[in-house]
Amino acid sequence: MKQIDPTKPNHILIGIGGTGGKILKAFRKRLWEEFPKAEDRRRLSVGFVYVDSTDEMMKPGDPSWKVFGQNAQFEESEFVNIKTTDLGMILNNPEAFPGLKNIVKNGEMMKKTLGEVGAAAGQKRRAGRILFASNISKYLAAVKNQYEKVTSVSGNKGNCHIHIFAGLAGGTGSGSIIDAVAQLRTDASFKGDSTEITVYAMVPELDIPAGCQAGRYHQNGYAALCELSALNIGEFLPCDVKTGAEHVDINTIANRQFGLMVYSNVNENGAVVNSFTELPKLLADTVYFSVFMRLKNGVTDDFQRGLSCENINDFCVEYNTNSKGNDKERARTKAVSSFGIKRIVYPEQRVVEHISYTLADSVFNQMAYNNYKDDLGFITDPQKKDYEQLYIKDDGQRRKWMLDDSFLMLNERILDTDKKFEKIEDFWKNLSVFYNYDDAKNADSNPLNYLEQFFLDTYKKAFRIHKQGVEEYYSDKSKDEVLKTQAEFILETIEHDLYTQWYEGGLSLTDLLQVSDTILIYIKNRRNKIPENVNALEERIRDFEQELAGNMDEYTHLSLLQKATGRPKDCYTDHQAILTDLYTARTELVAMDFTSRLLSKLQVFFEEFHNQVQMFVGALAQCMEEAAKRISDRNQQQGSLKDMKQAVIEVREDAKVASFEKSLLLNRNRMESIAGTLRHELVGNKTYAHFDELTKELTIEKAFDVVDNVM
User: Which residues partner with 332 through β-bridges?
Assistant: First the structure.
């Protein structure tokens, strides 16, 4: 049932008041389920008009309208708000509304009759009729607009079936229904036999629901039914609220103006269904079946004849038994139908939903813990991991995040914008061989002194390529703005990597929290160890200084024999090695102060980032928890054939469904693929984004829409 039979008429569904609106809502949601693609729905010659004295159903973002992540809500062009005209304004100046002169007549008297009218039409039929009648042009324009729409889709201008839904207990539906039908029958577009009208009227419940005004509840229903019956046979001609004429001009069409289906909330077995939630769905399903039915057989033929009252067309009028002669007085119509509220169904859609949402539960486990067991699938327990061993003691991972000492001491550049430079040890090692022994000897009678002075001058004035000393170099790098830039770059590197790993499925939400926590602990511990590292460096510097002094002393006291055998050159070579180690250590000591400042800044930034990760994980976990709760609510099991008196009896093969679900749950690749799609959709397929930005964008409704779409 995926296309309308082109030989069947166009369909316009009109819902009046709260009851009518609920039925249209149920029908539209069914339509969105059956035709999830917008382009398929645009090919259907089905239009909607919703008429009400409140815009409660038009609130944007109402989650109750969502169907698998899509919004099935009415469009503005489909809504006729009949309370845009104030009732008091009409009654204070009835002359401004000539079409209502035969309803209002005396404005002051009408105000006394109606009394206080609150929300909607206050369950007062006359108030509902006045509000509807004052907006009759908008109503007819909306119906004609839908007529043009559906006929342009079908290409069929010859036939149209208008379905009007209303409850007869309140004020809006009960008061509007007569003019809603009569004005269509007087309009040129819908006057002839080519337009079929069916009214679906809900009669008041015998047991009045809580919150309903009992004083007018059944009276409204009785009065509306009487008028509908008389209108149907042309015996009652209401005033024309469009022109102000005393009566509408309607020619009787085959003994009746419209089909009338009357129903309540109780079936023949006394089973009661909820008037506000279940009953609208039952009627919507019945109408949906009649609109989209294509199969032709004896059962469906009977169904269609029942809807059209075909078998009693010649006998649908009941005459007044007191009438004399041949000119009998019409009394009421017998062309009234109803529908059964008991169905045995195979709930294909619910079975599909059950499977989808059961899989969603497993997908949530994968996203939260990523712990797979061969016989269970993804479970709710986190994996046992040594995060410090995996992410901190791993030299490659630390380097990737720029958290190893080489970056923290600026032994390697952090910012890509910095010019390339040598590592500290390489710089001093290359410097040490700049002058060989003979060059140094030519420059100074004591080449070791010359070499020492060369190192000292370089340390003070010409470190690396910046033409500044070591202390000045690191002082510039320790300025607050420069430190901030470097710390932010390291943080960005870490966040990008963690996000990518999570986005690609390498990290679960639990992993994300644990890794973030492990990094923060490492930063704190590394910072706390700096005094210990400083002491160790100072000790090494003292040792190198003593070694340097000893080598110098040996050089100055060489014997003639030692000088003759080349010992001075060996002392020079030893001095080169010692100076390299000494100035490497002295540079690292200055760099250690920079490291302390950088780690201090990085800790502040990372603590904030850690909180952002926690908030993101918490928000996502809350979304998944709420989605799981809604899934659980949807998946409530209903027994098979437990009570034949119930309105809807579901028959399904639970064992086969469970077996099929298990085969999917244990398909690890498939579940990981679904989880990946869900993750990507949750963050709008952003290959990189900041966690705090994602948290702001996450809402439970958005998450549940994604689940509906993906699953």
Answer: 318
**Interstrand relation of 160-167 and 10-16 (parallel, antiparallel or unpaired):** parallel
Q: From residue 32, give the alpha-carbon distance in Å to each of 15, 42, 107, 322, 617.
A: 18, 11, 46, 53, 32
Cβ burial of 366 (10 Å; 0-12, 13-18, 19+) is buried
pLDDT digits (tens, 9 = 90+) for 206-248: 877 776 665 677 888 888 898 898 888 888 889 999 998 999 9
- Record the tokens describing residue 504, joined without a space: 């690609």
CB 369, CB 381: distance < 8 Å: yes
Among the ranges given (107-111, 272-276, 451-455, 551-555), the one the predictor scored with the smallest mean pLDDT: 107-111
Cα–Cα distance, 74 to 195 (Å, whole number): 24
Q: What is the DSSP string of 229-289?
A: HHHHTTS-----TTT--SS-----STT-SSEEEEE-SB-TT--B--TTTHHHHHHHHHHHH
Q: Average pLDDT over the chain, rounded to whole?
A: 84
- Token representation of residue 60: 């944007």
Task: Place 307 in a pLDDT band, splitting at 50, 70 and 90.
Answer: low
What residues form DSSP beta bridges with 70? Answer: 67
Which tokens sit at 358? 């059961």
Q: How far, CA to CA in Å, does 127 sit from each of 96, 103, 131, 286, 451?
A: 17, 10, 6, 31, 106
Q: 3-state secondary structure string, 652-693?
A: CCHHHHHHHHHHHHCCHHHHHHHHHHHHHHHCCCCCCCCHHH
Residues 162 and 195 sit within 8 Å (Cβ to Cβ):
yes
pLDDT above 90 (res 33): no
For residue 504, how many other CB atoms are within 10 A of its CB? Answer: 12
622/629 Cα distance (integer angstroms): 10
Task: Say yes or no to pLDDT of 472 above 80.
Answer: yes
- Mean pLDDT over 265-292 rounds to 85
Where residue 115 falls among pLDDT bands split at 50, 70, 90?
low
| pLDDT, tens digit, 9 for 90 and up, residues 567-598 | 889 999 999 999 999 999 999 999 999 999 99
Neighbouring C-beta atoms of residue 654, cutoff 10 Å: 12
CA atoms of 593 and 7, how far apart (whole Å): 86
State mean pLDDT over 281-309: 71
* Own/partner long-range contacts of 482-490 (Cβ < 8 Å, ≥24 apart): 483/597, 483/598, 483/601, 484/601, 485/415, 486/414, 486/415, 486/598, 486/601, 487/598, 487/601, 487/602, 487/605, 488/605, 489/402, 489/414, 489/415, 490/401, 490/402, 490/403, 490/407, 490/414, 490/602
